[in-house]
What we know:
The protein is an alpha+beta fold and about 140 residues long. The protein has helices at about 5-10, 15-25, 30-40, 40-50, 70-80, 85-95, 100-110, and strands spanning about 115-125, 130-140. The radius of gyration is 25 Å and the shape is rod-shaped. It starts with 5 loop residues before the first helix and ends with a strand.
Amino acid sequence: MFTFSPEEVNTMITTEVFMEIISLHRQGLSTRAIAKKLGIHRSTVKRHIEGNTFPQYQKIKRQESIIDPYRQTIDDYLATDDYQATWLLDRLKKMGYPGSYETLRDYVALQDFPWVNIHVKLASIFQGGELCAIPNCTIICWG
């Protein structure tokens, strides 16, 4: 039985590709020829031929965000008023928040509050049927 290392667990192939690898191998094609034909790495082909069973992938547990301990506080502030991420950052830093402004800004922008301003480096809009780019703008999202 073949054992997968943590690096190999992240290599994902479909059932169809796995079946194609086994089929081509049984037809006598070399590992290199199979890899070239399917557009995958030789070591991937070799690993699946040696294992001879469809790989079982493991779901990787989501790593805790640096925002997680402060999530409720941020949500409470945002629920009461239209606070900007810079103001929130000042308050959270006093509470020991070790993260960056960008992390906080991105979290605030993703919240489902109708009054969040999102500052973007480049926005794309349709104007008169044509795609236009607007650099350095603030988009006000309304629920």
